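Tokens for chain A. Residues wanted.
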């Protein structure tokens, strides 16, 4: 084993599950995938053991679980799992997690991963966005499932974390994007009476301008957006396209124009099932790409899909792209060098440790094909948004076990080797 891989293994031993995915059920360590400087396989060879993906028409749907009653029961559609220990603790549980000096801050080679300083607070079911070179981790909840107002801020230039003004209301499963000097938090779900995650759908359009001291402002567009949580978004110019979400959002698709503070309903996702949620979306060359996700209530035990749908604003029409290598829900995604990277996710009974997908697949729009690259060293789910800055994809936080009780402080980065922009 190369020295940096040995260092990563030692790091996992010292810091435990908060920074590295815990082992399989028999206690053996999970396969890592390449960390910068390791002797793990190169990207593109990580799909040898994956199940075949549907029938190639983009509509394949897999029902997570085998129907034998052993899957965790969804209690209200809020990602509750049965993976917590007897004391309710899980990987990443705890209070503050300041950055440590012994983490592997190596600059990864193309096609490899590395770590960055862990989040201040363990988190999952949150949104991540970039604005002016800073990375914001917004809302969500840790393993306690107490919904947060916290906004954590990471500066890649100094490798340090800080906090920004909190949200005016506790939110999980929001969509957040940075556009023209402001952060926009759209929709999401709120907390119940005891502060715990609940299916309280929100139609909030919130904005934060770091150059002022106003904090978050409710823009109160009229009419408001469709109330939704667990959707996704892509940005084209000054327009934010928001798609999908848990019931009652259905397959709603709409666009927010920041120039005049208005929402406009668009043609819904053309799906065979309703309520597609926990999906990934991005914008590439003036089109919106939507990949994966799951249906029905949003529980990780529900049916998942490998569909890739493409929206062209110039025609107002949807089309289908090549399906993902296999169905996945709870995914995250980002555009990098003209490619659509889709990684992570969760389901039940999927023959993966902790029922979390390690898959990292890359779609080339010009070739209409997917390439499977090196899997995530620590598979995660429960994150929407992943900044791409100076050649690195930033993947902060996320749940390390299926369900909503494993929010972590892990902070992984990946340097893409594939390019789809012709350069």
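Reply:
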């Amino acid at each position: 084993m190369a020295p940096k891989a040995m260092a990563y293994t030692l790091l996992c031993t010292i810091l435990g599950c908060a920074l590295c995915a815990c082992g399989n059920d028999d206690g053996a360590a999970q396969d890592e995938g390449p960390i910068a400087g390791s002797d793990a396989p190169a990207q593109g060879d990580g799909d040898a053991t994956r199940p075949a993906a549907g029938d190639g028409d983009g509509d394949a749907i897999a029902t997570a679980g085998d129907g034998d009653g052993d899957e965790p029961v969804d209690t209200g559609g809020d990602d509750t799992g049965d993976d917590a220990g007897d004391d309710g603790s899980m990987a990443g549980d705890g209070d503050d997690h300041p950055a440590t000096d012994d983490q592997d801050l190596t600059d990864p080679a193309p096609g490899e991963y590395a770590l960055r300083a862990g989040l201040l607070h363990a988190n999952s079911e949150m949104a991540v966005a970039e604005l002016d070179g800073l990375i914001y981790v917004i809302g969500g909840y840790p393993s306690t499932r107490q919904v947060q107002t916290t906004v954590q801020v990471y500066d890649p230039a100094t490798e340090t974390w800080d906090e920004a003004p909190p949200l005016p209301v506790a939110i999980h499963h929001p969509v957040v994007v940075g556009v023209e000097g402001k952060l926009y938090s759209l929709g999401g779900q709120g907390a119940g009476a005891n502060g715990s995650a609940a299916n309280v759908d929100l139609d909030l359009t919130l904005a934060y301008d770091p150059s002022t001291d106003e904090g978050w402002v409710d823009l109160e567009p009229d009419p408001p957006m469709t109330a939704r949580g667990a959707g996704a978004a892509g940005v084209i110019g000054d327009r934010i396209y928001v798609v999908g979400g848990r019931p009652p959002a259905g397959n709603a698709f709409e666009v927010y124009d920041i120039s005049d503070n208005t929402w406009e309903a668009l043609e819904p996702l053309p799906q065979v099932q309703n309520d597609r949620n926990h999906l990934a979306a991005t914008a590439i060359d003036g089109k919106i790409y939507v990949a994966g996700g799951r249906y029905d209530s949003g529980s990780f035990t529900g049916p998942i899909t490998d569909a890739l749908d493409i929206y062209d604003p110039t025609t107002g029409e949807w089309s289908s792209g090549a399906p993902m290598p296999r169905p996945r829900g709870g995914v995250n995604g980002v555009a990098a060098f003209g490619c659509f990277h889709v990684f992570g996710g969760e389901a039940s009974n999927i023959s993966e440790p902790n029922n979390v997908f390690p898959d990292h697949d890359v779609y080339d729009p010009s070739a209409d094909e997917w390439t499977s690259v090196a899997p995530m060293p620590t598979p995660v789910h429960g994150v929407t948004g992943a900044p791409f800055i100076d050649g690195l994809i930033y993947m902060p936080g996320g749940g390390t076990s299926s369900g909503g009780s494993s929010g972590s402080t892990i902070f992984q980065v990946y340097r893409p080797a594939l390019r789809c922009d012709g350069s």
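The helical segments are 3-15. The first strand starts at residue 61 and ends at 63.
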